[in-house]
Amino acid sequence: MPQPDHHAIAALVRQAALEEILPRFRNVERHLKTDGSWLTEADLAMQARVQRELAARFPGIPFLGEEMGEDEQQRLMQHADSGLWILDPLDGTSNFAAGVPIFAPSLALIRGGRVVLGVVFDVMRDETFSAAQGQGAWLNGERLPPPTTDIPLGKALACVDFKRLPPKLATRLAVDAPYGSQRSIGSVALDWCWVAAGRFHVYLHGKQGLWDYAGGLLILEEAGGHSCTLEGEAVFNNTLEKRSAVCAGDTRLFAAWAAWLRGGQA
């Protein structure tokens, strides 16, 4: 089966988000899920819309959405080698529900044990990030340049999610941060894309789901950036296991950041 065109898929995701997510932003109906996270009407509407449109265009590729049950998700992962869509219909739901304008749907295609296509759409900034394996990363139809920088780690702008880090590491970062300053924007998918675009220099997250990171991971890779887990493994492992993420756009900066996190001197 030929690989879908990532620009066409990006247009599909953008249009669905503008019609299903954006109109609901000012009038949010939210509910707590069993895992303590928020679920809104926009999550469900976006997932149903994208699933329906992908099924019409690519009937041979199964679809896994974040808001499906865990048993169904595990069953669907058995198709990942031959092709599987992975969707987070609204990454940053807590932001969305609170009125913070930072959230994005994230879509990825997994095939042959790899992420081969990724799309992340920043709804409020109308920014569409996309990538396909071997074809580079793109922002609003223009190719992203490699996110290289001559900024040393001590001057870097870091994106760090402290909540999910091991307590000892979180404490060490709080009292002896190796970077210049730190942010956390509340959307994993956009975290990865902003590293790819050079807006963040380094990134750290302790635990994120496959639908959170898959699209952004490919976008960062295709832009020329780097990532691993806190254990030094590849972030993507073709399972639903939650994974940590250590990222940077620049090769030397990534090495310094990873070394500091391992306890060495950067």
Walk me through the topology.
Blueprint: H1 6-20, E1 30-32, E2 38-40, H2 41-57, E3 63-65, H3 70-76, E4 84-91, H4 93-98, E5 104-111, E6 114-122, E7 127-132, E8 137-139, E9 142-143, E10 157-161, H5 167-175, E11 181-183, H6 188-196, E12 202-208, H7 210-223, E13 226-228, E14 243-248, H8 251-261
Parallel strand pairs: 3-4, 10-11, 10-12
Antiparallel strand pairs: 1-2, 4-5, 5-6, 6-7, 7-8, 8-9, 12-14, 13-14
Helix pairs in contact: 1-2, 6-7
Question: What features would you describe in this structure?
Answer:
The chain has 266 residues and is α+β, with helices and mostly antiparallel strands. The protein contains eight helices and 14 strands. Strand 5 and strand 6 (114-122) form a beta hairpin. Helix 1 (6-20) runs antiparallel to helix 2 (41-57) and helix 6 (188-196) packs parallel to helix 7 (210-223). The radius of gyration is 18 Å and the shape is globular.
Structure in a nutshell:
By secondary structure, this protein is an alpha+beta fold. It has helices at residues 6-20, 41-57, 70-76, 93-98, 167-175, 188-196, 210-223, 251-261, and strands at residues 30-32, 38-40, 63-65, 84-91, 104-111, 114-122, 127-132, 137-139, 142-143, 157-161, 181-183, 202-208, 226-228, 243-248.
